[in-house]
Amino acid sequence: MTLSVLYLLLGTVTAVIGALPLGAVNLAVIHTSVKENIKNASYIALAAGIGEVLLALFALHCSMELSIFFQENQWIQIVFIILFFSIGMYFLLFKKKINPKHKSNKLKLSNSKFLTGFSLAILNPPVIIYWVLAISLVNKYIFKLTVQNPLTSLFLFFLGIYLGKIGTLYFYGRWGNKIAQQPGDSKAKLSRIIGIVLVVISIFQGINFLAE
Q: What are phi and psi of 82, to 5 degrees?
């Protein structure tokens, strides 16, 4: 195995590990796959992959500065805790059925999903923290990973991140699509599951925040 392939695999595996836990992007992909279709969910996944790469690149450049920034601006974490909790309660208590979109709105819908995926991915401080930690561990235990690495190696590493992210989200999208095909009120159950997960995530993050 060449070193270049190792960079690609490392980026892919690291992205998959970070994307496996249910988060805002994962839930958006599942929900869109259930309420609409896997194609619309793919727009979210593709855009989220771009956002993930940008966050990883940002973390690679500014790992130390980012750690200090989040320590000095804890209000950002509080905002996301409240946001996750509010959205979770919305899914649990107030979620209504979405009316089918008219064909003439297809382009608008695609753009909206793409923007949604990119926004959910890029505006996510926990993911930045994850990449700061992940890159630090790579530097400590595997090999040196800095902006001074060869351009080809960095390209393969970030390509791996993109493929790992969208691959994991595609898995979640297919899972949501299977749920949509089940008889009964599976969609309503999924909304409740999404709501519960978001509320639990917000509570967990709140406990971690208070314990710091």
A: -65, -40
In this structure, are residues 34 and 179 in contact, taking their beta carbons and an 8 Å threshold? Answer: yes
Rounded-to-integer distance, Cα 30 and Cα 146, Å? 34
Q: Is the dihedral of CA 86, 83, 179, 20 positive or negative?
A: negative
**What pLDDT score was predicted for residue 95?**
57
What are φ and ψ of residue 144, in 5° steps? Answer: -70, 125
* 149-182 pLDDT per residue, tens: 888 888 999 999 999 999 999 998 888 777 767 6
Residue ranges, the chain, pLDDT below 70: 1, 63-74, 76-77, 80, 94-111, 180, 182-191, 194, 209, 212
User: In degrees to the nearest 10, what's the CA dihedral of 159, 162, 168, 174?
Assistant: -110
CA distances from residue 128 to 22, 50, 183 in whole angstroms, order as listed? 16, 14, 39
In angstroms, the CA 51 to CA 43 distance is 13
Q: Are 134 and 127 in contact (CB under 8 A)?
A: no
